[in-house]
Amino acid sequence: MRLFIALDISDEMKDELERASKRLSAAAQNVKWVRKENIHLTLKFLGEAPEEEVENIKNVISGIAGKTAPYSISLGRLGAFPGPSRPRVIWVGLGKGVEETVRAAGLVEDGLEPLGFPREARPFSGHLTIGRFRVPKVDRAFQEILLSEKIKPLETRLENIVLYQSSLSRAGAVYTPVFRAEFRTEPDQGI
């Protein structure tokens, strides 16, 4: 199974990101835009994992949810990896909720490493991918639009963490929730 762990965002946020994608698409060639229903905040991509490992992954996710209180995030600025002059990925960062999201990603790394999932080499950068370049070549006009485009700083409350299965097809990726764990609602007991 091809798996990843993510946080879901509100439909209102997805609508705003889809609007941004449409505004950018006029100036960007060779971009595969992420379908609105597939936009999420990835904490860790696991890749192929044996089905017998899924229960252990669920247990890790449940433990993380038990250590995490619901919190709010907001949409931040547009950006590109590795940079605006030769972008491969177009993303929207977080305005609010950065520290909490970094903490959640760290708990995921800590919990999955003993199961054989290697830690990420790069520091975690919470973002929402909205497009991927097929060919990382853009003109100056696109760079200017990317740097000047404003995203509404919409806010949503995150209340759970999700294990997704990613199935690839000719029509694109299909993300199916495998397991969802609700964040704790009682006061922290010193964990």
Beta-strand share of residues: 25-35%
Low-confidence stretches: none
Give, in order, the helices and strands.
EHEEHEEHEHEEE
Average pLDDT taken over every residue: 90
Strand order of the largest sheet: 2-6-5-4-7
DSSP E strands, number: 9
The CATH architecture classification is: Alpha-Beta Complex
Oligomer: single chain
Characterize the overall form: globular
End-to-end Cα distance, whole Å, is: 32 Å
Structure description:
It is a single chain. With about 190 residues, the protein is of the alpha+beta class. The chain has one domain: Cyclic phosphodiesterase (Cyclic Phosphodiesterase, Chain: A). It has 4 helices and 9 strands. Strands 2-6-5-4-7 form a 5-stranded antiparallel β-sheet, with helices on one face. Strands 3-1-8-9 form a 4-stranded antiparallel β-sheet. α2 runs antiparallel to α3. The longest helix is centred in the first third of the chain and has 15 residues. The two termini are about 30 Å apart. The model has no long low-confidence stretch (mean pLDDT about 90).
Brief overview:
The protein is of the alpha+beta class. The protein has helices spanning 11-25, 54-66, 98-112, 140-148, and strands at 2-7, 31-33, 41-48, 71-81, 89-94, 127-133, 155-158, 160-167, 174-182. The protein has one domain: Cyclic phosphodiesterase (Cyclic Phosphodiesterase, Chain: A, Alpha-Beta Complex), CATH 3.90.1140.
